[in-house]
Design a protein that fits this description.
The complex is a heterodimer of chains A (about 475) and B (about 900).
Chain A (H helix, E strand, L loop, with lengths): L12 H18 L6 H4 L15 E8 L4 H4 L4 H5 L31 E4 L4 E4 L3 H5 L4 E7 L6 H10 L9 H9 L9 E6 L23 E2 L18 H22 L2 H24 L6 H7 L8 H13 L4 E7 L16 H21 L6 E6 L3 E6 L12 E4 L3 E7 L7 E2 L1 E2 L6 E3 L4 H11 L9 E3 L2 E3 L17
Parallel strand pairs in A: 1-7, 1-8, 4-12, 5-6, 5-7
Antiparallel strand pairs in A: 2-3, 4-11, 8-11, 9-10, 13-14, 15-16
Chain B lengths: L6 H12 L1 H5 L7 H9 L3 H4 L15 H4 L18 H7 L14 H12 L30 H12 L10 H13 L5 H9 L5 H10 L2 H14 L17 H12 L4 H10 L8 H6 L16 H21 L18 H10 L14 E5 L2 E4 L12 E4 L7 E5 L18 H8 L7 H14 L20 H13 L4 H10 L1 H4 L6 H6 L12 E2 L2 H12 L53 H4 L19 H9 L1 H17 L4 H13 L5 H19 L2 H8 L1 H5 L4 E6 L8 E5 L18 E4 L2 E2 L19 E2 L4 E8 L7 E9 L2 E6 L2 E6 L3 E8 L2 H5 L6 E8 L9 E10 L11 H14 L6 E2 L1
Parallel strand pairs in B: 9-10
Antiparallel strand pairs in B: 1-2, 3-4, 5-18, 6-17, 7-8, 7-11, 9-17, 11-16, 12-15, 12-17, 13-14, 13-16
Helix pairs in contact in B: 3-7, 8-20, 9-10, 9-11, 11-21, 12-13, 14-18, 19-20, 19-21, 24-27, 27-28, 27-33, 29-33, 30-33
The chains are: A alpha/beta (about 475), B alpha+beta (about 900).
């Protein structure tokens, strides 16, 4: 055998996977295509690549970038040097969003305690979450490439810092379909009065067909746009119109034989069922008092707590991916509402009870094992005080920080009580076991039974993947049960 | 006719057609493009053009490298398959190639073996060879052939044993060609005139009339704007609005004027580089100013300038040549002949423009008073940038320096052309370019037939799908160039063909044998694009405004859609006819596009969209059933049908059908819908409120209001406020609070004497009447609400910091971020409830801690709307409301939503 062909033994994983995709792509192109693209892409359940650990995902995104130093990552050394100038060598070659000149190091005003049997360090701002800490795997070594909100959010959720790619939830429904015929497969709930920075692109389907895009359900007004019948049209009258519509469409279809017409009749019937099933699942008023007091929910209110309870109801009903966005975590310290002393405790209180409740509630219903919960922001915050206004300001806050932040995962397939990765003495850089957005995406798809390296969609000549073009993203096996 | 056609046989015959070379050359070498290349393709990730991922120094994408003639490792010995290591390695028992995925089948290995034995001759990818004029084929039915399109289509049908379908009936035809050419349905009179005109030239006269209609430019501009990633906002986090509609209007006009495609191209890519460019030539360069601008605080302008340049390279490659150049920004293309260095040589063409991710989108051109639109301008000679390869696509990691150039695999740059964008545009439009004309005619074909001759419109490279009708594609491309890139002429050629005029109804056999209509044995049939769903409903109901061009408009959309960070700007339904303009004119914000259109697959405009993927979802049903503007259309369709028809129910229904579908209903359809009408009328007889609402949908939706000013701002006669700059303590918002010792001053308040951070003059200084220098400002003002029945109270505020406003002590509005122009904020319901006729107190706390762009400024006003008096005597009977219900059904008919 000539030496030129001996490389097979040393084949790299990248090579392996590229080759896999080409195989798949040509299979796809060579296969007999279904009648139309519209029929090919449906939300019907699809088989995963392998046995899944989780059937559905509830992703809690804290838009703005919550401070890991106030919530999850205690740093006694930072505390000790609080108020001193940041050493010059830490600033060299750094780009910050707002910090100019030499900032001061800033310790946290909050105490940390060890929680649960695992002894996980949790801030006093999250007392209820501390009570369920043994269920969660805390990742203190998250790191990202982007330090502005919109690109960082897009990178995390779509795998690409630029607009136009498909969101995680869209990938999950593309890969697995939905378990409930009468509800969307990917639902988005927003709290904090504003949509996150990158807007609806965060739950868009990008280059995937739009059938996979997230459907924003609203807790005030119509839960899904145009769900309600027009004013003056009763449900019984709507039924009569759909009967007539179906009759006429079938009549024409006998002549045209267009299969799309039959598919459209089906979609109208699904829409009709959604008119009942969506408001039903979105109506939390019939939940017992015990549940309301567990979550801190008030029916009719626009709140993160209500959205957590809705998330449980949605996954209970077979929705594949529930994405929550909570706006208001951008604590720069340039006003009272962005001060880590005045505002952060309120934000923390607003999420502490419902997140702990969500874990407990899913557990008591036997759903935690099959539901993956992810919590985190698009980046973290600097160990330095931002001090945008100069010395005169009375407010305290931190700048955007992509190099180190904390997220946690719980539920389906996750090993509880784990603390993974670490940062340096002041929480500035990741010390060990870095986890990137791509790693998180790979892990999430893996838990759903989807091979992150194989799940792809052909677009613009590339096999697009959530984890991006290279195989750098790794499944973080240390977090898996 | 078609005798027992099975899916299998059609597919077999089709692949035989694609492999004509095989058939003609008997048992000799396998066809390289059809049989060999797909197998070799599996090897290219590691043995392809990308130097960085190549294994074992073996390249299999060209004969020279594969046989070792260029110094690499020889995997092939031409004529000697048994000596070729390629065969040994794919057949090896241990570690066979390819290392992953399925093993090559024995048929595939045999194909490779035969190919090597026959000399291992490579062929260039079909799309990289110039088109060749096909011979006029002999066909089975020359009488069916109206022009060469038909001969080429029929030749393929003949080979598959198929016959073309009959011509569509005239109602169908007039609707089809009207929608295709203008995006609008014909009026019933126009349809009837065509149907009853049996002269031979009737169809051609119709086509000519449609091509010269102003609506033609609007329809085909929308096709082009998908490529141009047109939107009325800048993208990214703030996604501020941008004034680039003059470019959109330029496209509409250029298409209506039938600007040749080569000129159309040159102006958009390089209008600024012409000697003495006109204003229009400069506006045309807006094509590439549709890239996104990131105005988020703390962004690196160079990073996003670089993104914009890369987007321009990718969009140019996709739009004109159907190639995925963008792949090569991080590494050499794995399949197509463009190296990373060549990519950055293309990048260099676009790297010399003066725009640089600035908040004001400069450079801009003032096209009318107060209207400035982004354009291209080249940098001055001193500002010229050098271009380097970006390692792994990272703009901060620079490699080798490069000069502007085009990829070596294609025709050379004309020595007469300058190495700038103008030269590049000329290179794209050169008759030597194998792709530009093919890509352009394929796009037109795809919009008319629902799918391109090359299905992957976005990829004519080796990874794309081969053309179903290669000869037809080449003929059209050559015809397009021969005619001087005349867009209307090539469209006319296609729609005049017998192929286009076939009925889209399919026999069961044909449907099973050729579900995608690849062979074109029937006419086109597919769901209308988003814009036509809306425009058709408005046109049929008589609501459509035919105003052409101008600033984008805001048709009605539900509240709460425009919930965007850093902007409290409201979506305010446009007044008058502007709420019924064509979809083309709808204000398009990238992060929050008009929802009922995105549901029908309209792209967001974030990146170049070559081909929309059509979907069929329940959310679409919800839009067409329930979206208020479509209900309004139903109301007006019903009203119009009643007005235009004779008195009988049958004739009302018939007119409704004619308005929307052109054709009269069948007896069965008529019977079914009249039954629905009677059911609905009897239901509504029991439901007076439902009857009223369905009859007055326009009133439910909008009202022609008059604005009443309760507190004027500095644009008018601003009143004198009481104000304080130190914390006034508790209770300062209430109407009882004593503010008599506060200072007094007129709005607006601010410290605009100071220039802003960039040293520019502060835009607020003109309106500033009272100086405010402190971080906090507390303001109070008493006002009355003189008129009764006022509605929709809102503050009009321009402010630099954050504010909280109270009415009579009740929180009324708040905003945490500034707004550079007056922006409406609705008054909260509780504050509204606290209003009384006299002696209300408006209290506002403003905070501006400094160091944001611009000076301190606050300008505060309050307005309300005075609803109009409605004339009485509206038709509000259950019988008429039932017609609205019927119209709602008719607008939702599958036939209405389909181009057929």
């Amino acid at each position: 055998m000539s030496p030129g062909f001996e490389f097979a033994q040393h084949v790299t994983r990248r090579h392996f996977l590229d080759a896999c995709q080409i195989g798949l792509a040509s299979m796809f192109l060579g296969s007999v295509r279904p009648a139309t693209a519209a029929q090919e892409h449906t939300l019907a359940p699809k088989a995963p690549h392998y046995e899944p650990k989780a059937k559905s995902v509830i992703y809690l995104h804290m838009a703005g970038g919550p401070s890991q130093l106030e919530l999850f990552d205690p740093k006694p050394e930072l505390q000790k040097h609080s108020g001193t100038d940041c050493p010059q060598h830490l600033l060299e070659g750094k780009r910050f969003a707002f910090i100019k000149g030499v900032p001061q190091l800033l310790g946290t005003p909050y105490r940390f305690q060890q929680a649960g049997q695992s002894g996980t360090w949790i801030s006093e701002l999250l007392p209820r979450f501390a009570g369920v800490a043994d269920e969660a795997a805390i990742v203190r070594s998250m790191t990202t490439e982007q330090f502005n909100h919109a690109p960082a959010q897009l990178l995390l959720h779509t795998g690409n810092a630029r607009l136009g790619s498909a969101s995680m939830g869209a990938w999950a429904t593309y890969g697995l379909g939905s378990e409930n015929r009468d509800l969307p497969g990917f639902v988005v709930l927003v709290s904090g009065n504003k949509t996150p920075s990158a807007g609806k692109s965060l739950w868009g389907s990008g280059f995937l067909p739009s059938v996979y895009q997230g459907v924003q359900c609203r807790t005030q007004g119509e839960p899904v746009l145009f769900l309600g019948n027009p004013e003056g049209m009763s449900r019984s009258l709507r039924r009569k119109t759909l009967d007539a519509l179906g009759d006429l469409n079938r009549l024409r279809q006998e002549q045209s034989r267009d299969p799309d017409t039959l598919a459209r009749i089906e979609q109208y019937e699904l829409a009709y069922r959604m008119q009942v099933s969506v408001p039903e699942v979105m109506d939390i008023s019939r939940e017992p008092d015990s549940i309301h007091s567990l979550y801190g929910t008030q029916p009719g209110k626009l709140s993160f707590a209500n959205n957590c309870l809705l998330a449980r109801r949605l996954v209970e009903n077979g929705v594949r991916f529930v994405q929550l966005y909570d706006w208001g975590w951008d604590h720069h310290g340039n006003a009272r509402r962005t001060d880590i002393r005045y505002d952060l405790p309120d934000r923390a209180r607003d999420i502490d009870r419902p997140t702990a409740a969500l874990i407990k509630d899913l557990k008591q219903r036997g759903l935690l094992d099959q539901t993956l919960i992810v919590w985190g922001g698009e980046f973290g915050r600097t160990p330095m005080r931002e001090n945008r206004q100069g010395d005169k300001t009375e407010y305290y806050g931190r700048d955007h920080h992509p190099d180190a932040f904390t997220m946690w995962l719980a539920g389906g397939g996750i090993k509880g009580g784990v603390s993974y990765g670490s940062t340096d003495d002041i929480g500035y850089h990741v010390d060990s076991d870095p986890v990137t957005p791509r790693d998180l995406q790979a892990t999430l798809l893996h838990l759903l039974g989807l091979d992150p390296y194989q799940l792809h969609f052909s677009h613009q000549g590339l096999n697009q993947r959530l984890i991006g073009p290279t195989d750098e993203g790794r499944i973080v096996r240390e977090l898996l049960a | 006719m078609i005798a027992s056609v099975s899916q299998c046989t059609i597919r077999l015959v089709l692949s035989a057609v694609l492999a004509l070379a095989v058939v003609s050359s008997g048992l000799a070498a396998p066809n390289f493009a059809v049989e060999v290349r797909p197998i070799l393709q599996k090897c290219l990730p590691c043995h392809g053009p990308d130097d960085n991922s190549r294994m074992a120094n073996l390249r299999l994408d060209s004969r020279e490298s594969a046989t070792g003639e260029t110094g690499g490792y020889a995997g092939l010995v031409p004529g000697e398959s048994s000596e070729s290591r390629l065969i040994a390695r794919v057949e090896a028992d241990t570690n066979p190639m390819p290392p992953t995925g399925e093993r090559l089948s024995s048929e595939e290995v045999d194909t490779l073996r035969h190919w090597i034995d026959a000399g291992a001759h490579y062929e260039r990818h079909w799309a990289f060879e110039r088109p060749v004029r096909p011979a006029q084929p002999d066909v089975s039915d020359p009488r069916w052939v109206r022009n060469p399109v038909d001969a080429l289509v029929l030749a393929t049908l003949d080979e598959n044993g198929l016959r073309p379908s009959l011509e569509a009936d005239r109602y169908t035809l007039v609707r089809r060609v009207s929608l295709d050419l203008t995006g609008l349905p014909p009026t019933p009179d126009e349809a009837e005139a065509f149907v009853s005109d049996d002269s031979t030239g009737a169809y051609e006269a119709l086509v000519d009339r449609l091509l010269s209609a102003a609506a033609y430019g609007e329809r085909w501009a929308r096709v082009w704007l998908d490529l141009a990633r047109y939107a009325d906002s800048m993208g990214y986090e703030k996604d501020s609005l941008r004034t680039i509609w003059p470019y959109r209007d330029w496209v509409v006009k250029a298409l209506n004027d039938n600007l040749p495609f080569d000129r159309f191209t040159v102006l958009q890519l390089a209008g600024d580089l012409l000697s003495e460019p006109t204003q229009d030539d400069l506006v045309a360069t807006g094509f590439h100013r549709n890239t996104m601008t990131n105005t988020e605080g703390g962004t690196d302008d160079e990073e996003f300038r670089d993104e914009a340049v890369k987007d321009r390279v990718a969009t140019t490659g996709q739009t004109w040549m159907g190639l995925t150049w963008g792949c090569a920004q991080c590494h050499s293309h794995k399949y197509d002949p463009i190296s990373q260095k060549e990519y950055y040589s293309l990048y260099a063409f676009f790297n010399q423009t003066a725009d640089a991710d600035r908040n004001d989108d400069s450079p801009t051109l003032e096209v009318a008073e107060g209207v400035s639109t982004p354009i291209f301008r080249r940098v001055s000679d001193e500002e010229r940038r050098e271009t380097f390869v970006h390692k792994r696509g990272n703009f901060m990691s620079l490699g080798e320096r490069v000069e502007p150039n085009v990829p070596a695999a294609f025709h050379g740059f004309s020595p007469a052309s300058a190495k700038n964008r103008l030269g590049l545009a000329q290179w794209l439009m050169s008759e030597e370019n194998p792709l530009t004309a093919r890509v352009a005619v394929n796009r037109i074909w795809a919009r008319l037939f629902g799918a391109g001759i090359v299905k992957t419109e976005e990829d004519f490279g080796t990874q794309g799908t081969p053309p179903t009708h290669p000869d037809l594609l080449d003929w059209l491309a050559l015809e397009f160039m021969r005619g001087g890139w005349d867009m209307k002429a090539i469209i006319k050629t296609i729609v005049m063909s017998a192929t286009y005029r076939q009925t889209s109804d399919a026999s069961q056999e044909l449907l099973e044998g050729d579900p995608n209509n690849d062979l074109l044995a029937r006419g086109p049939r597919f769901r209308l694009p988003a814009e036509m769903v809306r425009d058709q409903a408005l046109a049929a109901s008589g609501l459509l405004s035919r105003k052409v061009g101008g600033p984008p408009v805001m048709p009605w959309q539900p509240d709460g859609i425009w919930q965007v960070v850093y902007s409290s700007r409201l979506w305010e339904t446009s007044p008058g006819e502007d709420r019924h303009r064509r979809a083309l004119y709808t204000l398009w914000r990238r992060t929050s596009p008009y929802p009922s259109m995105t549901t029908f697959d309209a792209p967001s405009g974030e990146t170049c969209t070559i081909r929309r993927i059509r979907t069929n979802t329940p959310l679409q049903a919800l839009v067409t059933l329930n979206d208020p503007p479509l209900m309004e259309a139903a109301q007006f369709l019903a009203k119009r049908a009643k007005r235009e028809a004779h008195s009988s129910s049958e004739s009302v229904l018939e007119q409704m059908f004619r308005l929307l579908l052109m054709r009269p209903p069948s007896a069965e359809e008529s019977r079914r819908l009249l039954a629905l009408h009677d059911e609905a009328a009897s239901d509504l007889a029991e439901d007076p409120s439902g009857t009223r609402k369905l009859s007055n949908y326009d009133r439910v939706l909008y009202t022609e209001n008059r604005e009443a000013t309760l507190v004027d701002d500095s644009r008018g006669n601003a009143p004198v406020w009481r104000y304080a700059t130190v914390d006034p303590g508790e209770d300062w918002t209430s109407s009882h609070f004593d503010d008599s010792r506060w200072k007094t001053g007129r709005g607006s308040f601010g410290n605009s004497k100071a220039a802003d951070n960039d040293g520019n003059d502060d835009p607020y200084s003109a309106s500033q009447r009272t100086v405010w220098n402190t971080p906090d400002l507390w303001m109070r003002l008493e006002f009355d609400v003189p008129a009764r029945g006022l509605d929709d109270f809102r503050f009009e505020v321009r402010h630099s910091g954050s504010f909280r406003a109270f009415i009579n002590g009740i929180p009324a509005a708040t905003d945490l971020d500034g707004a550079g122009t007056h922006v409406p904020y609705p008054v909260s319901p509780s504050a509204r409830a606290a209003l009384r006729p006299n002696g209300n107190v408006l209290a506002v706390h403003v905070v501006h801690t400094g160091l944001t762009d611009g000076g301190r400024n606050i300008d505060f006003g309050l307005t309300a709307l005075q609803p109009p008096e409605f004339p009485d005597g509206r038709d509000q009977t259950p019988e008429s409301a039932a017609w609205v219900v019927v119209a709602n059904v008719v607008l939702n008919l599958d036939e209405a939503l389909t181009k057929r």
